[in-house]
Design goal:
alpha+beta, 15 helices, Rossmann fold, eight-stranded mixed β-sheet, five-stranded mixed β-sheet, 21% strand, 457 residues
């Protein structure tokens, strides 16, 4: 008998976890749009050359982590390992550059695929949310995207994080630095791992990012990029840091931070987070500037910068911090038929609520009142709509607040206006009394989706 199970490095998202993913994505989407970004969707697979040209043949992604296959037409195709390359390819191929005021601001969200060893928060199919700002080179753009990433974390309720930032310089600075690293590591290359032998030949910068040798003294004592930065690159970096200082962004300069993709230039950054107990969650966001990439795709010479979040990493962090406790509510109302004779009437009430835009569900199994109230609690419904024979005969319903436990019997044609009034009162009370910090509060009426001004969708 066949055994069906998940491929290694993948996962199913069922019900509650799917809602959590959707919540994270909605917060990120809404904030990106408030910064002037619009969504772009590109295929989940591209011609392999798209990633060879953009990501770079020296990166581990190209050498070890890409899912590449041959189509029936004998073309090499690759499941996207990251989002930026597809966005830039579309930007050039569709000639978006000819019809845009700059900067062109796009965001994307969706699955990416990497054949790497599965570990906590890292999968072979994962989800990324990313932004790309194309066409303008100014330290204020670099600072803006870092500020936006921090804003997104704050909005999600992540407050224990630090930005690690560095400059790897312009093309001249990078070439001089790579040459210096190659000369430095040459006498000691036999002491490094096999991957570093390849990196030494292709791009010695990648040795600094090695997961095996990165903590060895010979790597720690390697030349620093700061000694090779051009005057322009150093000034650009200093100006970016000044803007971050002005907005009190918590950052530290990490002179070994190089990022894992070859297309980066000048400012690069990662955001590392901790849970509420002080345990490190590692990098949950990374990005920087890539001024050569548009031209690499045969487009005009336009600068660009961006970042990407790993959504699974965010999900695990927020779950560890129990940040979803006060924002999860599946429905607004739950209809409870108390007798089998009122089922049709209860069903009609539920459908009436749905058609008026009010979330509603009901009990279809005619369970006991106690069992139905347990479902009300599990679903975190704001109101239970109780219907018995008396209510049906009088064309009424009894509305019970799950927060205050108060109940009121009203005519069914008054139900929608009554609920609208209750929802409005709940939101007003939340605006006045809300003191939770993006999901850490404990308020009966703050269950998310519009109830908390920190979590409006």
């Amino acid at each position: 008998m066949a055994i069906y199970h998940l491929p290694r490095g993948t996962q199913d998202f069922l019900f509650e976890r799917t809602r959590r993913l959707e919540y994270i994505e909605s917060v990120l989407r809404d904030l990106a749009e408030s910064y002037g970004y619009a969504e772009i969707r590109t295929p989940i697979f591209e011609h392999t050359e798209v990633f060879l040209r953009s990501v770079g043949e020296s990166s581990d992604i190209v050498n070890k982590e890409m899912y590449t296959f041959t189509s029936r037409g004998e073309r090499s195709l690759t499941l996207r390992p990251e989002g930026t390359a597809g966005v830039i390819r579309a930007f050039v191929e569709q000639k978006v550059y000819a019809q845009q005021d700059y900067p062109y601001k796009a965001f994307y969200v969706g699955p990416v695929f990497r054949y790497e060893r599965p570990q906590a928060g890292r999968y072979r199919q994962l989800h990324q949310f990313g932004i790309e700002s194309i066409g303008t080179r100014t330290p204020f753009i670099d600072a803006e995207i870092i500020l936006m990433a921090c804003h997104m974390l704050n909005e999600l309720g992540v407050h224990h994080y630090r930005v690690k930032i560095n400059s790897i310089g312009d093309e001249l600075s990078l070439n001089n630095y790579r040459k210096a690293l190659q000369e430095y590591f040459a006498p000691m290359i036999s002491t490094l791992c096999e991957d570093c032998h390849r990196r030494h030949e292709q791009n010695a910068l990648r040795i600094l990012d090695c997961k095996i040798d990165g903590d060895k003294e010979i790597v720690k004592n390697a030349p620093k990029i700061a000694d090779f930065l051009s005057k322009e690159s150093q000034q650009y970096f200093d100006q970016t840091l000044q803007v971050l200082n002005d907005y009190q962004v918590p950052y530290e300069v990490d002179d070994r931070l190089v990022r894992g993709l070859d297309y980066y230039t000048d400012v690069v950054f990662e955001i590392e987070a901790e849970d509420h107990e002080g345990n490190s969650f590692g990098a949950i966001c990374g990005g920087g500037r890539y001024d050569r990439l548009v031209k690499e795709f045969d487009g005009p010479e336009l600068p660009a910068a961006g970042f990407a979040f790993g959504i699974e990493r965010l999900l695990l962090l927020l779950e560890k911090d129990e940040a979803f406790n006060s924002i999860e509510r599946e429905i607004e109302t739950y209809v409870m038929p108390l007798e089998s004779t009122v089922f049709q009437y209860a069903f009609d009430v539920m459908m009436h609520l749905r058609l008026q835009g009010i979330q509603s569900d009901m009990d279809y199994g005619m369970r006991s009142i106690k069992a139905q109230f347990k479902t009300v609690d599990r679903k975190r419904a704001q109101f239970a709509i109780l219907i018995g024979t008396a209510e049906m005969e009088q064309q009424q319903v009894t509305v019970k607040s799950n927060a205050t436990k108060e109940q009121k019997t009203i005519q069914v044609d008054e139900l929608v206006p009554y609920l609208a009034e209750q929802f409005a009162a709940c939101e007003e009370e939340t605006e006045h009394e809300h003191t939770c910090d993006c999901g850490h509060g404990d308020h009966d009426c703050c269950h998310g989706e519009g109830d908390c001004h920190h979590h409006q969708h």
